[in-house]
Amino acid sequence: MLILSCNVGSTSLKYRLYRLGEWEEELAFGHFEGVGRDWGSSGHRAASGAQARREDPAPDYATAIGQMLDFLSTSGVLPAGVMPGCVAFKVVAALGYTGVQRLTEEVLGGMEALYALLPAHNPPYVAAIRQFRRVMPGVPLVGSFETGFFQDMPPEAYLYPLPAELSARGLRRCGAHGASHEYVSGWVAAREGRDDLRLVSCHLGGSSSMAAVRDGRGVDTTIGLSMQTGLPHNNRIGDIDPYITFYLHESLGYSLDTIKDIYARQSGLFGLSGGLSADMREIAAAAEGGNAQAATAIDAFCYQIKKHIGAFAAALGGLDAVAFTGGIGQRSALVRQKALEGLGFLGIHLDAAINADSPQDSLISAPDAAVRVYIVATNEEIVIARKARELLEEK
What we know:
The protein is of the alpha/beta class and 395 residues long. 38% of the residues lie in helices and 20% in strands.
């Protein structure tokens, strides 16, 4: 089965085309940046070596989809007129839906119902999915919700201390980055040769989350109902005292729209660094050059990671492994070092030389460490492609 696996952003589209049968084969991949903007580019590459690149933006998703299909056809990946058997999407959350779903209008309506909670995620996804449907009529569209990996969390982990009637309306800790945490936990289990692992998975990037994983299932996580929770993100706030909102509004006179903008665009690493940058690479360079606020931003980020590793170790009853993934998790030796400093009492010890090299898909803990630490290059696209295939083959 040919499955097109897609990751949609507010102005971006990334894809990978797989053939899934007795073995898995990646046939092509590509990306669009600046969709609908005045600037942008796109690039495509087939397994055969065929490539294409444009230095102009696609005006909308429909145009981007058409250009993608043109490349897949002209490069010989897809015969003329042939469509993939399915398009699989990594979607975040929908009211009343989780796991793997055919993306019907009812499911899209559940995504629309969460626009207020997921303003940067759900609107572009719903718009793109509808354009895929128009450009590729008859092709099944399947969504793998990021909350699915955490749908079996125990009540003590997912419940908020709210009135029961609000919990019954879906106000709970839902999690995110489920496909990434699932890929990482499967990769580590295969590397360790066992499924009964107690693992902390650290997906660190522009959007960051951590998961406590037992026997391959997510049992706790840092993300709550919205993506404005947990660790500091690139420019989103993460966990704060909820009454700060009322203080800003009622005592300091900030409008709710201004507060929402502060939380969504001016906070996280960007806010901690004094507005220097939302990019950990730039913050780290500034810290190395003596910028004290940049150094504090890194320390604050890493402290939260360290604190949650300890909390999750308690929740899991011990630790067998810790894994780092995502743009920061895979590339920043400094963040991994600082996040794990002082955790020797848990059996966590890095091999400093190996960690400094940031080797992908590798063990970076000391040989005698009780807890094994890995860097894992995540692959969310293959996870959602597999799930889409399983759903379609159930019929």
